[in-house]
Amino acid sequence: MKNRDDALLRRIVEYCNETEAAVNLFGNEEIFKNNKIYRNAACMPIMQNGELGKLVSTGMKDATPQIDWRGWCGVRDIMAHQYTNIDYKKMGYYNC
């Protein structure tokens, strides 16, 4: 279990770095609102992290109560299933 969680957490960090790289590459909030390529580049890793968060063990989730695992996975579900209705402003610019 610990090795699996370690691998999942490493991958989550990689996806966080990908989101940060997209933000650094494309720039500001105005570009984010108007550029689908930017939104996709920033949001896909967030969706992947939500999926990976579902695989993290209950023990790891219990050991990290400061992380809103359920909310994080919920954002993924919204982005995956209600993508045409996403209010990016409401979700927060850097939270996709």
Helix and strand topology:
Blueprint: H1 2-26, H2 29-34, H3 36-55, H4 58-63, H5 69-81, H6 88-91
Helix pairs in contact: 1-3, 3-5
Alpha-beta content class = mainly alpha
Number of structurally distinct domains: 1
Query: Mean of the pLDDT scores?
Result: 85
Largest sheet: none
What's the quaternary structure here?
single chain
Which outline best applies?
A: globular
Q: Can you tell me about this structure?
A:
It is a single chain. The chain has six helices and no strands. By secondary structure, the chain is mainly α. It has helices at 2-26, 29-34, 36-55, 58-63, 69-81, 88-91. 77% of the residues lie in helices and 0% in strands. It starts with a helix and ends in a 5-residue tail after the last helix. It has one domain (2-95). The mean pLDDT is 85.
Q: What is the structure about, briefly put?
A:
With 96 residues, this protein is mostly helical.
Name some characteristics of this structure.
6 helices; 0% strand; single chain; 96 residues; 77% helix; mainly alpha
